[in-house]
Amino acid sequence: MARKKARYDGPVYYTTYQVAKFLGVSLPTVVNWVKNGLLDAHKTPGGHRRIARNDVIAFARAHDYPLSRELLGTDGPAKVLVVDDEKDFSEMVKEYLRIKGGFEVEVADSGFQAGFTVARFKPDLILMDIMMPDMDGFEVHRMLRDDPDTRHIPVVACTAYRDAETDRRIEADKFDGFVEKPLKLDRLLEVIRSKLGVAAT
Prior knowledge:
By secondary structure, this protein is of the alpha/beta class.
């Protein structure tokens, strides 16, 4: 049986030329982004710019640039983590995304478990229930954004308890998307594919 290519599992840095190729823009465009502070970069002792992989992915997603599988570091199915304290809901979503979307899916039933699962599973996207008893989705999201190793991962908020204050907090915390329970599973699949740049098969 053929073995799947190893996924990215550590810090990687790219040249401005490589970033330009990944995003399909000119080299001067990338240099201007760096000069204007739009894209973080550091200089080597020789004066060459290097840009962290996670920063490239975060920038691409923020500005709606499509992500290649090469940049994501995998030739296998995209990974989705479902974080929700309702086990029946999580399992339903997991099976739907696995069968209909072709994704590799894992679930976490609490904010605390989500942290451990993210470190081990290294998801490409997280579907996050924002109303959980131990650590709510807002707190988990802030922790992910504060960590350089996870801040590039798109997080889609999910809740049945929607009101003006919840909408305000989701927007203020800059989640990458929002879906409301009860879920329309076809709409969820559409949102996830859009955020990951994955075409329907």
